[in-house]
Amino acid sequence: MSSADTKTADASGARILPTSDELRNAFNVEVYDRSGKKRPLRDIIDGKRSVLIFTRHFWCLNCQAYVRIISEKIPPSSLPANTQILIISNGSHEPIDTYAKTTSSAYRIYTDPTCQLHKIFGFKSALKEQGDGAEKKDYMQDAGTALNRIFGGIKAALCDIKNTPYIGPKAQNGGEVIISDGSW
């Protein structure tokens, strides 16, 4: 287990920065692209400033809404030079094409079926929804109620039944990591 799992958040809720060793370990984790080709994370970062968006799993409707709105509101053409956004989920690479189509993702999508990256960066594993009375995230404004999202998830599962075993752990939370200069 990574030391990131025990790190506490600061007053803003952000996690403590990963150590150089944790970043080095993260850069060596192999991720899979849509065709199943695996490469170390450092090869896809490739020296660029990178925003890594980690999703829960491929059927998470909240994450789908987030990827959709990021792609819509921040197209690749609007990013500063030498900057990229990468989407990283967990589970098998097999649902990536369906996920890219469902979310209209403008960004490359990868998966870490081992969840090593999620562990190194200290993402929690929990199924708890946002509490009652909590303000809805901007990207969730048009996503419907929790019940609508549950039925939407069931519908997605039935429409993509062949990928059911490959979507990844449903309790794994995601988050964002920014690699500022593409190196450690």
How are the secondary structure elements laid out?
Layout: H1 20-28, E1 30-32, E2 38-40, H2 41-45, E3 49-54, H3 61-73, E4 83-89, H4 96-103, E5 108-111, H5 116-120, H6 146-159, E6 175-179
Parallel strand pairs: 3-4, 4-5
Antiparallel strand pairs: 1-2, 3-6
Protein name: Alkyl hydroperoxide reductase subunit C/ Thiol specific antioxidant domain-containing protein
Domain Alkyl hydroperoxide reductase subunit C/ Thiol specific antioxidant: 26-124
Organism: Didymella heteroderae
Would you kindly provide a written description of the structure presented here, covering whatever features stand out?
Helices cover 29% and strands 15% of the residues. With 184 residues, the protein is an alpha/beta fold. It has a 4-stranded mixed β-sheet, with no helix packed on it. It has a two-stranded antiparallel sheet with strand order 1-2. Helix 4 links the parallel strand 4 and strand 5. It is globular and about 40 Å long. The longest helix is centred in the last third of the chain and has 14 residues.
